[in-house]
């Protein structure tokens, strides 16, 4: 694998590594998209209510992603050293940490449910639907976090097939349970939005149980030598990597929550249309997100080998690719827009909101992809502070202010234009920042002369 990353054709290497990631991500993202399709059949109010939950759900998932990044990094490094005893300790303690965080989030979420969603802009008409959905969803917070950490242990060993397969099966189960539990079939009562949350909870729980059934994973887990001191030591080591990654991951849903609050000022139909649009947007970005997971290892290894020109070609080649790819995705969305609008909205103002979203927001996804890849590249260059600053600029200095200003000037369409302009602006900033950083690295390497092995 090291030889491939250092010497293999860049484009082909990244493609081979992206494909299994794409499969797993499609399955993971389909949860919300399938839920949205079924909930749309219940009417605009339930759909608007569930749209309010998306930033909160995304925040929990972002925390899980950060924990997975930390777990994978620690376990992979120990595997490279051949320290299998410590691998079992860290993997076990990571799973216990995921369980503890999940239980804590369940308690905090249920205790703050109504005040939080009132703060996000939900009114009295939507709160009953939100209570039904999140009251059930919060109970399964651990089932959302634990399997992501377990999957990261498998990926650290080079096994991407099992995690992708498990997520695909969970997505299929979720779709089936949505139909059974939301509308009721036979003796099963119709639970509405509560049924959608229960379907998600049961699907993730089933995947967690199936993961524990994998021999390769069971061999990495060991509760026999658990001690409080050892547990805290593991959590500190995991936290050094997981906490910055989780904080950066949480920035996106926090900004999304603020934009949702801005959209809420334009009515329930605006929130519902925007909520559907954000779910379609997530699917439209899947290629970029897969690249953001597969590009960093190539960057890190080639920097270590002093192959700075290869790093530059990989990063900027990916930049050009995502700009062209996302333009193609935008064109495809325009062709599919009539069908998407008819499938996910009942007509009227909500349809107009979704159509406007699909025209403006995806047009900036190429520039947003440049930012996402720049953030992952800075992390791969061991410069997480730069990555965090870039995320702050994109989300809080440009996205939220321009969305607010657009809403004031041009209503709901102005909000979407503001999101487009924010992505284009920060994409330019990201491109320039990485170009300067890589040029500085190449100059420093040239001044230092040929790399010599350490003695």
UniProtKB/TrEMBL annotation:
The record's subcellular location field reads: Cell inner membrane
Q: Which domain of life is it from?
A: Bacteria
The UniProt entry, under Pfam families, shows: MatE
Q: What's the main place this protein lives? A: membrane
Q: Does the keyword Transmembrane apply?
A: yes
Q: Which UniProt keywords apply?
A: Cell membrane, Membrane, Transmembrane, Transmembrane helix, Transport
Per the record, membrane topology reads: Multi-pass membrane protein
Segments crossing the lipid bilayer: 21-40, 52-79, 91-113, 133-150, 162-185, 191-212, 241-263, 283-303, 315-337, 357-380, 392-409, 415-434
- Residue ranges the record marks as coiled coil: none
Q: Which InterPro entries match?
A: MATE_fam, MdtK-like, Membrane_Transporter-Flippase
Supply the name of the protein.
Answer: MATE family efflux transporter
- Species name for this entry? Billgrantia antri
């Amino acid at each position: 694998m090291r030889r491939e990353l250092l010497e293999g054709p860049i484009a082909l290497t990244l493609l081979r590594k992206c494909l299994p990631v794409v499969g797993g991500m499609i399955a993971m993202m389909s949860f919300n998209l399938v839920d949205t399709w079924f909930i749309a059949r219940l009417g605009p109010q339930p759909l608007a209510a569930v749209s309010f939950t998306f930033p909160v759900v995304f925040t929990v998932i972002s925390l899980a992603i950060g924990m997975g990044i930390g777990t994978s990094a620690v376990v992979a490094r120990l595997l490279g050293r051949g320290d299998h005893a410590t691998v079992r300790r860290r993997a076990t303690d990571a799973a216990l940490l995921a369980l503890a965080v999940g239980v804590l989030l369940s308690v905090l979420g249920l205790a703050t449910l109504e005040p939080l969603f009132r703060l996000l802009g939900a009114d009295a008409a939507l709160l009953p639907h939100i209570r039904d959905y999140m009251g059930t969803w919060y109970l399964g917070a651990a089932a959302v976090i634990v399997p992501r950490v377990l999957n990261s242990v498998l990926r650290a060993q080079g096994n991407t097939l099992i995690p992708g397969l498990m997520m695909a099966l969970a997505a299929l189960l979720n779709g089936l349970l949505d139909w059974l539990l939301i509308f009721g079939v036979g003796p099963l009562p119709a639970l509405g939005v509560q049924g959608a949350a229960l379907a998600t909870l049961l699907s993730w729980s089933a995947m967690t149980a199936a993961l524990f059934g994998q021999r390769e994973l069971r061999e990495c887990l060991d509760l026999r030598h658990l001690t409080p001191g050892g547990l805290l030591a593991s959590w500190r080591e995991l936290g050094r990597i997981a906490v910055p990654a989780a904080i950066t991951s949480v920035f996106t849903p926090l900004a999304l929550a603020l934009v949702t609050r801005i959209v809420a000022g334009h009515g329930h139909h605006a929130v519902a249309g925007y909520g559907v649009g954000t779910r379609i947007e997530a699917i439209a970005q899947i290629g970029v997100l897969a690249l953001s997971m597969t590009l960093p290892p190539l960057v890190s290894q080639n920097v270590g080998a002093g192959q700075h020109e290869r790093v530059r070609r990989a990063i900027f080649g990916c930049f050009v690719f995502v700009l062209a790819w996302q333009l193609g995705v935008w064109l495809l969305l325009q062709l599919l827009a009539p069908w998407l609008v008819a499938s996910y909205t009942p007509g009227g103002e909500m349809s107009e909101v979704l159509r406007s979203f699909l025209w403006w927001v995806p047009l900036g996804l190429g520039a947003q992809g440049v930012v996402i890849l720049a953030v992952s590249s800075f992390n791969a260059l061991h410069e997480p502070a730069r990555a965090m600053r870039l995320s702050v600029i994109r989300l809080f200095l440009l996205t939220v202010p321009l969305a607010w200003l657009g809403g004031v000037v041009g209503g709901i369409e102005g909000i979407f234009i503001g999101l487009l302009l924010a992505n284009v602006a920060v994409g330019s900033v990201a491109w320039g920042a990485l170009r300067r950083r890589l040029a500085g690295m190449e100059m420093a390497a040239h001044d230092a002369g040929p790399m010599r092995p350490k003695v």
